[in-house]
Structures are given as C-alpha cells and as structure tokens.
Amino acid sequence: MTQKINWRKALLGVALAAATLTGCVPVEGTGAGAGATGSGVSLRYEDAVYTADVRSVQLYTRNLNVADVLAPPLVSIDQSSPLLLEFDRMSAPRARAVVKLHHCDVNWQPSQLQAMQFVQDYNEFFIMEVEPSAGTKVPYWHYRFQLPRVKLSGNYLLEVAEEGGNLLLSRRFVVFEERVSVGLRPVATPGAGDRYVRQQIDFNIFYPQYPLVNPAQEIKVVMRQNHRWDNAKLFTRPTFVQEAQRRLEYQLFDVEQSFLGLNEFRALDTRSERFSGIGVERRDVTTSPDRVYALPGRSRAQQAYSTQPDANGKFLFGSREYGNAPLNADYQQVFFQLQAPEPAPGPVYVFGGLSDWQLQEPLKLTYDADQQRYTGSALLKQGYYNYYFAVKGANGQADARYFEGSHFATENVYDVLVYYRPPGTRADLVIGYSTLQFNPQK
Hints:
With 442 residues, the protein is mostly beta strands. It folds into three domains: 7-176, Immunoglobulins (Immunoglobulin-like, Sandwich), CATH 2.60.40.10; 181-261 and 410-438, Immunoglobulins (Immunoglobulin-like); 266-404, no CATH class. 6% of the residues lie in helices and 39% in strands. The chain has helices spanning 7-20, 215-218, 325-328, 401-404; strands spanning 48-49, 54-63, 66-68, 74-76, 83-89, 97-104, 125-126, 129-132, 141-146, 154-162, 167-176, 181-187, 198-206, 219-225, 233-235, 240-242, 247-250, 259-260, 266-269, 280-284, 291-294, 315-317, 331-339, 348-351, 364-368, 373-381, 383-392, 398-399, 412-420, 429-438. A hairpin with a 4-residue loop joins strand 10 and strand 11. The model is unreliable at 1-38 (pLDDT under 50).
C-alpha cells in the first residue's frame, strides 16, 4: 500500500539500507543524484528531464479508476478522468519534490495569466506518494502524483523540482472544452507519388452555438500524429469560411500539410525474466543489471508494407513474474542492433515514446564498419516498448523514413486541437477536440 512518506525516517532507512544492500549495482551515467543539474538550469517548455537520475516518466489518464498508461496526457475541462504522473529516481530522495503548473499559449510559450487564474489553490503541490523498489537488482524510488484540477482549458506545462529549486522534469498536457465540433475526413494526398507514402486528413470546424469573433484570424488548429508534438502541424487560417453554415473548412492542398504514414513500430517486450518476449533475441540474467539483447533490426525502407499490431510508439512497464510494475519491474541494460551495409547520412538513434520523441544521446547508436551494423545500449525499465530507428537529418530533426519506409496503409492515430483566444483575454483556450484512427486494423 502506498505510504504517505515520513521524510526523516525514510532518509534514515535509505542510509541503513545502502549500508547493507548486496547484489545491487550503481547505475552508470546517473550524475550526482539529487541536485545534479544545479540551480542554473532553465525550464524548457517541452517534455524534458533535467537530471540523469530521473527515468521512466509517464503522464497519462486514469479512466474510471483504471489507469490507461497508453492514453495521452489530455483531459476534458470537467477532469472527471484525472491525469497521473509517475517517474523513478535512481538515487534516494534528499528533499521533497514540488509540482507547479504553467499555462501556455498555442506555441508553448508562457501565457500572461497569473497562477490564481488557472489553478484552484496555491500553485505548489508536494508529491507525497514515494516508495522504494522491491526485490530489484537496480534500486530506485518511485514517485506518483495525481494532478490537481485547473480552471481553464489550454496548453499546460507540468514542472517538477526539488524543494529548493533543482529542476527534475517537465511534461506537457492539454485540457480541452467541447464548445465547437470537429469533423475529420481521410482523403488521398495530391500527387501520384505522395499518395502511397503520405496520409492526409481534411477537417471542418462547426460552431453553431458558440460566438466566434473573427474566426478566420483568431482560430488556430494543431493536428498531431500518434499524439506527438515533434512533428505536429499548425494551421493558422481556414481554407474557406462558411458564415451561413457557421463552419470553417480546411482543405489541405500543400503536401507538407500531410503526414508521412511511416511504418508500424518495432516492438520489444522485456517484461519476463524467464522467457524472451517479442523482439528479444536472448537475455543474460547472471549480470547486474540483467542484459537483454533485442533482435537485430534491418532496414524496411524497400520492403512492402506488412500489418502488425503496435502501440503507436508508446510504452508501458511491467513484470510478468512479480506483477507490481511500479515497484517490482527491474532496470535492464538493453542492447540494440541494426544491420546496415553502409553508414546512414547522419547519426542514428533509437526513437519513439521511450525517447520523448527526441534524439537522445543515451539512445544513440555507433556504426561498426567491419560488422556493417549499428550497436548501442540503454538502461530501460522492464516493459513493452515501441520504437523506430531514426536518422538525425540536416535540420536536426528525426528522419524515421530512412530505415522504416513510409506507407499510406500504416495504422496511425490523428487528433485535432482547436485553439481560440476570445477578445479581450490573454490566453489561448482549447475549445474543440477530435480524434480519428487512420486505417484501423480489424
């Protein structure tokens, strides 16, 4: 049962446990533990981790008291399904963790609102649910926090810091209202070649009972693929304004407004310590931490599309032997391989939700010309992961198409967020939301 932690007793217990603990190893590359970032680190308005001992961050919706870890961090303004934050720290806590919320505009910059205008109480919340791992080779502390209710819709940034100011992590989430309705319609992409590799969705916004002032100028729309922010599309003007029908029409004629369909994600299931799950070639449990070797990957760029179930790039944690994922799932050193007859035109990374949809150095692979393959490893918590192999392009962005290919037939999830700033206000509200599964698998 989760305890409301007594910090003085807990820290004394950690010191005694550290003195008697055997069979455990320090985690490589975790920095100096609490406070490793120092006070000079600036908050970034994106999904970020500021100290290397923070790992396995999840922010998701709890529906009807059931945790849906694959659900995006997005809730209705009634917040009947609250958001939950969970993460691990590889060093013992030395100070309480404090949560603050920041309201942001459509471009993820701080809005001009004061905290009292969007939070119910004082904008400082302590994380009280903290527990040590149980029976794991790699010790860690698990944090859990249910986000407080907010007063306004819009973009929000959740900031977690140690009491005293050292930043730990930040996460984006969205609160929406249903003031307008959105109709989504998959269409063929213009251009004979693009229609086989890209996916396009036209949409309409209906506002029969909501008084929009100058909607052609004040409405902004964001479309996402698989709830990603790194490749989201921003639409600042509708194609047509049908005032008589109180409808905004968006027809996407520019190919850059569509999305590459890419491919179904590669899967890796490390939840069992006794059996090799999906995507696992072999494992070594004699080491500490355990070593897990993923099946060697190969380029799929020239292969025909093949349907397979996936989680659209997301992940979940679990232990098939012990069951309590937050505390019993162990950390393992996972080794990745990618066969490549020649090096790619840029650095290669393991990429997906496990990397916050960013090209992260711990997930960077190294090319071996003699063996014609990329290799690398990362410390990951036991779980089920989806990932791509991505190349860092000249623009610094992830190019997954190089190794994964792209297909119109790929199953993806798209969602649309409608932003509006009412006259005389200082905040972008989210007044509409809709989602669509493209090429649903039966």
